[in-house]
Amino acid sequence: MFCKNCGQPYVTDQAVMCVKCGTQKGVGNNYCPNCGSPTPQGNQVCMNCGIALNNGMYAPMGAKSKVAAGLFAFFLGCFGVHNFYLGYTGKAVAQLLITLLTCGAGSVITGIWAIVEGILILTGSINTDADGNMLKD
Ligand SMILES: [Zn+2]
Ligand SMILES: [Zn+2]
Fold it and tell me: Rounded to the nearest whole angstrom, what is the distance from the C-alpha of residue 68 to the centroid of ligand 2?
């Protein structure tokens, strides 16, 4: 994985932001995240390695649904289902454990947490999954 803003490789694939320029993972459209070669703005495919670039509002094939993630957050959010769906496993497990280990009492906390995330997902403030892929509407 390469930073889409400055083209530097990430230290690990799990990195959530670029340590060189401080840009969030998946943000920017100057470089290919797969091979790190420069990508002219507006290109939807890397001319070097051929992968689809998630520039602008372009969602990749198999993109996860924003609406589905939002509904999971509202109805099953205290179990972290929306975060499991989007691949944010650490956050999902935390929500699941808080709810289960408190015999449901913690669902007051995780429920509110999930509803906030559901709103962020539906309003587009959270618009990528854990791999940095755009969510489709
Ligand atoms: Zn960078
Ligand atoms: Zn490439």
Answer: 30
What's the 12 CA to ligand 2 centre distance in angstroms?
Answer: 18
Number of domains present in the structure of the chain = 2
Q: Measured between alpha carbons, how far is 137 from 59 in angstroms, rounded to an integer?
A: 9
- Whether the pLDDT of residue 68 is over 60: the answer is yes
Question: 78 and 40 share a domain?
Answer: no
- The ligand with the least distance to the CA atom of 20 is 1
Looking at all shown ligands, the one closest to residue 53's CA atom is: 2
Q: Is the pTM of this model over 0.70?
A: no
Angle between helical axes of 107-122 and 66-76 (0-180°, round to 10): 160
Residue 14: which domain range?
Answer: 1-56
Ligand nearest to the CA of 15: 1
